[in-house]
Amino acid sequence: VAAYDRYMTFEEIDAHVHETVAANPDVASLLDLGLSYEGRELHGIKLSNGAAGQKSVWFDCAIHAREWIAPPVCLRIIDEVLADPALRDLADWYILPVANPDGYSYAWTDDRFWRKTRRPNEGSSCIGTDPNRNFDFLWDSVGDFCSEVYPGSSAFSEPECGAIGNFVASNADSLVLYVAVHSYGEYILYPFGHTVEPVPNVDDLIAAGTAAADAIEAVAGARYSVENSASGLYFTYGASDDYAYGINAVSYSYTFELTGGGSGGFNPPASLIQIVVDEVWPGVKALVEYTLAN
Ligand code: 0X9
Ligand code: ZN
């Protein structure tokens, strides 16, 4: 079981992933997506009942480096799915607790509010790309190197994004649900980020998102707001959720924006971790149950 009374470093989380796989060889296996720019392992977990032809669901956390409240949610999902065979009968679960390990590590050592990757930009002293603008769906080159939302020199210029994108595209046959866990704002966002035009299955996206928000509210009283990304937040191009949905890898795709706290919203006290994972897990469960049934 992961620690929920303090934030874990990338090394601690990676070690926890390996220990979990080693301790549960019958249901857990290592999800190895290769290396980050600086050579850190993109390691997640696959949880499965081992049956062939299962549907699957995906969760990634902390593609934005400073959003430390996200990895505990991924770790909590792993704990829950390990403990309940019925959840593994619903689907295979792919969970990547730290999607941007270089940035996450840099946020520990140097800059608590770092957002981007750590790959240098040729011709600039400003480092990094916004990984959630780097996916190869309606990727847009607009933005300067120093911007917090710099989209990168090309779609999938960031190995972290390419690894996730490649996995999602290669597993389109089985995937039904993609969730990127971010902070903050208490939103459940659905595609697209580039338009407020309703997508074809918008009613299903809202119904599933609302099932999740209701389950969260039942625990917490916090009301996550279910919104189109563009109208609920702002316009974006090249985000991971829009990629998964836009290439038709999944019919259900979301970004969870968790509860914020501390300076600027991105530094919730560690005392909030347990509260957030306790309230978000029932939402995740309800979302997976809904999307697998519909
Ligand atoms: O801007 C983002 O990437 C996300 N918000 S955050 O504060 N965590 O940076 C929202 C992304 C929502 N999804 C799309 N716009 N497609
Ligand atoms: Zn984010």
Q: Which CATH architecture is right?
A: 3-Layer(aba) Sandwich
Question: Are there runs of 5+ residues with pLDDT below 50, and where?
Answer: none
**CATH fold name, please?**
Aminopeptidase
The shape, in one word, is globular
The CATH class designation is Alpha Beta
Output the helix-strand order.
HEEEHHEHHEEHEHHEH
List each distinct ligand once: N~2~-sulfamoyl-L-arginine, zinc ion
Largest sheet: 8 strands, mixed
Mean pLDDT: 97
Structure notes:
- This protein is of the alpha/beta class and 294 residues long.
- Helix content is 37%, strand content 17%.
- It is built from nine helices and eight strands.
- An eight-stranded mixed beta sheet has the order 1-2-4-3-5-8-6-7, with helices on both faces.
- A hairpin with a 5-residue loop joins strand 1 and strand 2.
- Helix 6 packs antiparallel against helix 9.
- The protein is globular and about 55 Å long.
- N~2~-sulfamoyl-L-arginine (0X9) binds next to helix 8 and strand 8.
- GO terms for molecular function: metallocarboxypeptidase activity; zinc ion binding.
- Its cofactor is Zn(2+).
Please describe the topology of this protein.
Blueprint: H1 10-23, E1 28-35, E2 41-47, E3 56-61, H2 70-83, H3 85-90, E4 92-96, H4 101-109, H5 159-170, E5 175-183, E6 187-190, H6 202-220, E7 225-228, H7 229-232, H8 240-246, E8 252-258, H9 271-293
Parallel strand pairs: 3-4, 3-5, 5-8, 6-7
Antiparallel strand pairs: 1-2, 2-4, 6-8
Helix pairs in contact: 2-9, 6-9
Bound molecules: N~2~-sulfamoyl-L-arginine and zinc ion.
Domain Peptidase M14: 6-291
Protein name: Peptidase M14 domain-containing protein
Cofactor: Zn(2+)
